[in-house]
């Protein structure tokens, strides 16, 4: 499944003012709830925070990819936040995060859909020009286009 198939315009938040990792995750989960990606926000958040406890999802270069697999997820989803001010995510390289990609996958999803999504994102995020485009784009449409 292509990354852009997992997104709607409302699942892209540009220049949000979250000041903590949890606040950012809450805002993205709220979007998932409004778009009916999740039906139980609290239960899904529990899965995401459990995964965060296992190890940071701050992959470096100012990027974090938190994710959760839960039976409260209706369908695979991706939500993106670009932060107005970078926040500490305990990233692997120690760099504060200003781009967050939240992945939601149903517990019952056959195979490892979240790994396929992570792989697609990671391949793109390896490129500095791609990351820069995401950090400087001025519209939701441009950001989604960059993911194609």
Structural account:
The protein is 39% helix and 24% strand. The chain has one domain: Mannitol-specific EII, Chain A (3-Layer(aba) Sandwich).
Q: Gist?
A:
This protein has one domain (3-141): 3-Layer(aba) Sandwich (Mannitol-specific EII, Chain A). It has five helices and six strands, in the order βααβββββααα. It has helices at 21-34, 41-54, 113-125, 128-136, 140-147, and strands at residues 12-16, 58-60, 63-64, 67-70, 77-87, 97-106.
Determine the strand fraction and express it as a percent band. Answer: 15-25%
Broad shape: globular
Q: What is CATH's topology name? A: Mannitol-specific EII, Chain A
Q: Flag low-confidence runs.
A: none
Quick tags:
globular, 39% helix, six-stranded mixed beta sheet, alpha/beta, 148 residues, Mannitol-specific EII, Chain A
What is the strand and helix layout of this fold?
Layout: E1 12-16, H1 21-34, H2 41-54, E2 58-60, E3 63-64, E4 67-70, E5 77-87, E6 97-106, H3 113-125, H4 128-136, H5 140-147
